């Protein structure tokens, strides 16, 4: 993986997320160059300097977009606001829970993403799905070429620990499904995005509790084929997705972009400083995500986060993928997930290596080839297009 900050994996990971999710390399360099020394101090110190630098980069783009709008150049303004929203989202993602500007920055990022979609006339619509007395927010991307009255297969994309629906929609997944005749739903499930930040819905191990209302909503959608709904989990979604498919039989297939078979064991390894963390202030972050008051409460919740004794319930096609150099989640967990899919009628395992690219966690180093392989598999299983 390209490490802009050679001694700081966590800061470099956020930089790569920006570069592979719609960011501009010149803009990213301008934001990161002044904070190289701060990065050398470690993951947690200096994150406020990171915030200030990335916020300033977003502010510059907002000012330029205002000039575009004054000239009537809506498309140009929309593109700039989309990148500003991404940079604001990265800045927010890196801060500890309780950072005073965090919620305001998140709301501003949401606002700019929405304005950008409207100005650029993007094939992406915000939706709200009733769930547990509240709602989950999602981004619906319509399959290309869908005619009035037609129904398309659809993939539900589930976030990881620290991603959001906007972040994933701005990745290669924002277009690769639609081009293959598949619609997509990027969703902020409990513990992520709006569900966590705006509605106080923490993560939970029994993902079927929120997956079932999503399927209910999709099966009633006029543009969705109710028999061809697949699921894709990214990063910690590599736990959420298999669990959801195991206990919600209406999913027609499942796939993981990074297998997360035993997240409880990963926590024990991280306590021993084994492997890399995805965000700074990691232990404060996971306590927030899971609604835990302290470390003991979090670790008790994490004990449920494994797939042993679960995967034999899956009786639909399933794809397991993993980067061979994943420094967050060991490769062995991909093999464990694959081996336990004993009742899947079609199970496939793809390890991304130096030939394919995408060897790091969820292929954040190079998602293009890996993403296309996953999209092709899902299109073949769900009846989309691969030509």
From TrEMBL:
Sequence ranges assigned to domain Peptidase S9 prolyl oligopeptidase catalytic in this UniProt record: 214-383
Entries under SUPFAM superfamilies matching the protein: alpha/beta-Hydrolases (SSF53474)
InterPro entries: AB_hydrolase_fold (IPR029058), FrsA_esterase (IPR050261), Peptidase_S9_cat (IPR001375)
Protein origin, superkingdom: Bacteria
PANTHER family assigned: CONIDIAL PIGMENT BIOSYNTHESIS PROTEIN AYG1 (AFU_ORTHOLOGUE AFUA_2G17550) (PTHR22946:SF12), DIENELACTONE HYDROLASE DOMAIN-CONTAINING PROTEIN-RELATED (PTHR22946)
Name of the protein described by the UniProt record: Prolyl oligopeptidase family serine peptidase
């Amino acid at each position: 993986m390209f490490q802009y900050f050679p001694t700081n994996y966590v800061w470099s990971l956020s930089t790569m997320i920006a570069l592979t999710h719609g960011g501009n390399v010149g803009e990213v360099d301008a934001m990161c160059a002044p904070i190289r020394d701060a990065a050398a101090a470690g993951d947690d110190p200096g994150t406020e300097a990171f915030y200030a630098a990335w916020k300033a980069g977003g502010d510059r783009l907002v000012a330029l977009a205002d000039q575009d709008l004054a000239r009537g150049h809506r498309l140009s303004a929309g593109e700039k606001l989309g990148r500003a929203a991404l940079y604001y989202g990265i800045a927010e993602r890196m801060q500890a829970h309780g950072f005073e500007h965090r919620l305001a920055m998140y709301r501003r990022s949401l606002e700019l993403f929405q304005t950008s979609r409207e100005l650029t006339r993007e094939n992406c619509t915000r939706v709200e799905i009733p769930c547990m007395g509240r709602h989950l927010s999602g981004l619906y991307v319509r399959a290309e070429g869908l005619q009035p009255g037609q129904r398309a297969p659809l993939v539900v994309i589930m976030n990881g620990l620290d991603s959001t629906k906007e972040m994933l929609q701005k990745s290669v997944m924002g277009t690769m499904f639609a081009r293959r005749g598949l619609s997509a739903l990027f969703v902020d499930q409990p513990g992520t995005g709006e569900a966590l930040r705006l509605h106080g819905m923490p993560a939970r191990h029994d993902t079927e509790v929120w997956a079932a209302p999503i399927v209910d909503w999709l099966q009633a959608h006029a543009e969705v084929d109710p028999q061809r709904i697949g699921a894709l989990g990214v990063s910690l979604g590599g736990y959420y997705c298999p669990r959801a498919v195991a206990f919600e039989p209406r999913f027609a297939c499942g796939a993981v972009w990074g297998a997360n078979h035993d997240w409880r064991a990963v926590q024990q390894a991280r306590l021993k400083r084994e492997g890399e963390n995805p965000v700074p202030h990691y232990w404060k972050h996971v306590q927030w995500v899971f609604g835990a008051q302290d470390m003991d409460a979090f670790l008790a919740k994490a004990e449920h986060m494994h797939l042993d004794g679960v995967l034999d319930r899956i009786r639909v096609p399933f794809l397991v993928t993993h980067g061979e150099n994943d420094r967050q989640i060991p490769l062995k967990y991909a093999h464990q997930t694959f081996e336990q899919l004993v009742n899947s009628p079609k199970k496939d395992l793809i390890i991304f290596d130096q030939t394919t690219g995408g060897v790091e966690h969820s292929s954040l180093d190079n998602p293009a080839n890996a993403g296309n392989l996953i999209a092709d598999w899902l299109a073949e299983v769900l009846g989309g297009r691969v030509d």
